[in-house]
Amino acid sequence: MKPSATPRRAKxxxxxxxxxxxxxxxxxxxxxxxxxxxxxxxxxxxxxxxxRHHRAMSWDSFYRLLRHPVGSLLTMLAIAIxxxxxxxxxxxxxxARLLDAELDESxxxxxxxxxxxxxxxxxxxxxxxxxxxxxxxxxxxxxxxGMVEFQESLGLDDALAGLDANPLPASIVVRPQxxxxxxxxxxxxxxxxxxxxxxxxxxxxxxxxxxxLAALGRRVALALGLLFGLGVLLVVGNTIRLAVESRRRxxxxxxxxxxxxxxxxxxxxxxxxxxxxxxxxxxxxxLGLGNHWLSLPVAALAASYGAxxxxxxxxxxxxxxxxxxxxxxxxxxxxxAVTRHLSSIRPR
Length: 348
Known about the structure:
With 348 residues, the chain is an alpha+beta fold. The protein has helices at 36-67, 69-106, 119-130, 143-154, 157-160, 181-192, 205-246, 248-256, 261-304, 316-342; strands at residues 108-113, 135-141, 171-176, 197-203.
């Protein structure tokens, strides 16, 4: 019989001499610590997921509006009508601001000299008036030039030709640095004290009346803007409320599986923003149509008075502001409506 291979060691047998047996367990490698890199990775992943959900909800809400074009268009048209009147008043006040700047340039003082003042004395008085610190510009009008302008303005050439002497005195038209009523009155007192000056008249009363009218117009425009802005909130809020009620079961299901209010609110907020943006675009179109429709009659009316006037239009800045305000109002109306109705929805 062949001898067997290396004999197996019996249970409990002592190890052979010269072989060392380790009695200590091999330690496992320490776990890797999750530092800033892993936290940054998790944050970037969450941020990408948040961005993907926002994009998905924005396009989903847009496609939902396209599925009901008539209802969406009527809602946007109601928003546009509510925005047209404040925007038109804004344009009117902007043209009034330009007119007010022109009125400031035309606000002057007229210094009437004594009839005994000769042209040389009138020139010296004009230099003294120009030297005043509150005076911006002066224009000397001689007696002869004043008579010519008076005849041209009234068309009385034949009637005034028979006069033996010119009854008009020389005058100085003064354009002041400041068009405030108090400063102009102070300047008139200073100029009236000069030698050779007979009278100083302040041509500012009608300018003050127009300024009061412009201030009244600004307050009316602000009040109407607030009222119509509230109307936009109500229109969008009522539309979003109906959308929330139509998707009530869907909202209850997603809330049962742990969806937060922000998650549920997000598509409705995008719907409100789309409604507001569409209403702003339609309001720009209505303003353009109204401007084109009224431009010819307004130009004809201005031409009949020997003037030129064109209706103001919204520029890029004004259009951007209008679209931003309409989108913000739509978003805010949707947020108010959804927040109010989500508080009453309890998943069962």
